[in-house]
Design a protein that fits this description.
homodimer, mainly alpha, Glutathione S-transferase Yfyf (Class Pi), Chain A, domain 2, GST_superfamily (chains A, B), Glutathione S-transferase C-terminal-like protein (chains A, B)
Amino acid sequence: MSSPPHKLQKLAPYILHYWGGIPGRGEYVRLAFEYAGVSYTDSNDSAKLLKTLRSTSPSHFAPPMLELPNGKILSQTPAILNYLAPKLGLAGEKGNLLKNAVEDDDEREEAEFERSIVNQLVLTALDLCVEAHDSHHPIASSLYYEDQKQEALRRAEDFLKLRIPKYLAHFEETLRKNKVSHSHLVGKTTTTADLVLFHVVDGLLYAFPRRMGALDKGGKYKRVLKLHEKIMAEGGIKEYVESGRRRKFGVGLFRHYPELDGEDEDTIEPEKE
Amino acid sequence: MSSPPHKLQKLAPYILHYWGGIPGRGEYVRLAFEYAGVSYTDSNDSAKLLKTLRSTSPSHFAPPMLELPNGKILSQTPAILNYLAPKLGLAGEKGNLLKNAVEDDDEREEAEFERSIVNQLVLTALDLCVEAHDSHHPIASSLYYEDQKQEALRRAEDFLKLRIPKYLAHFEETLRKNKVSHSHLVGKTTTTADLVLFHVVDGLLYAFPRRMGALDKGGKYKRVLKLHEKIMAEGGIKEYVESGRRRKFGVGLFRHYPELDGEDEDTIEPEKE
């Protein structure tokens, strides 16, 4: 069962294989295609997915898997995004040159470096996503939340108090130091890093509204939150969100358990400093 | 305080900034240089490291950071390895072509894909490394092991029982399916994926000797364990290990706590199947 082709689609050059129902890690790949306006098919056929995972060489550990126009398959979200970035114009102005052959050595080096910096920022934003997941599943993905709730309460406390602010400060600093644009992580064009950060912030706002609200008060992370708003309204993403095709958060990576957001007790102080 | 230059070194084109004392994530970058025989300086100057983390644009979230010959800095282990791979001849036979400009579109696409597959496998092996770390620190990196030991016992049980076998099976399958070589993850040349898997397996053997011994008995993961032995004896790595420069495991990512390895109680059954 594949999802119906959407309006951007003419042919189906890329097929994204992912579980149905949740945004999950597949969403990071979807956002890249949606922003770029490049057609893709969103396949949620679990049986085909499991078969593909194991039948190809090399094997794939987990979805998302991207089936390329030539039938080859690539998995691991950061690997997919780094592969696609220059093709979709999301690797930075210089990084995007790598869509074609870059003959000049210095120019190619600059392009490879910018593409790598985008990759670096994508990886850090995805690390934050993993920590958000582990805040409700600190013991095992194979167990229900209810079976690790006590540990989750402890882990979420540290995540909210120390980790979220540390990551947000890192991205705020990166935006602040970008001399050509304070609303882009790299250069002055939207990259996969901006799109991934957008979705992670969106997930944190969904999962931890109380804590994110408290962190927002001092204006310490204003550029990060502004980037989130900006991407939400940008061409490609705006249409995607309004189309209703964008999957809602629920019981995936980002989950809203009020008790983990510190709503039950006021142990987490708002940022002072 | 920098570590003394080692025998491979003539100039110092690359500088690896990392914490002193532990192999850590810096080791994955060291192994790439050591295997390739390319000189690098291993800088453990904490003060300089912290300053560099924040003074550059973009900011870097954490070490390792690689300072390039041109002075630019890149962080995030998988981003560093993907950047270096074609330059060091560790991106697969086709992937390595990307060291230079590849004019033919089809050839460049094949090269980009192979480099991406290497990246994919690196990322999965590093995910296993993160889970190994979280088995002793399931609640917070900011707390001591002793302060999260109860939770660690629970997480390690799942990690040993389900996660290690799942990852090892994935890599075993990848080696088995490689038509041109059962001792390389991609093609028939050593890539960053082989080197990362080597170190992760080395870390697991150090941290969980009892469990890894039990898993070894059925021969289910023989190709993975053979790859580990092969890399240990390979040119570049052999000299590195014998030189004594390779840092020992201790209280870093991979830790040997007998109680987490199930030595106290025999709850974890050996593999049957």
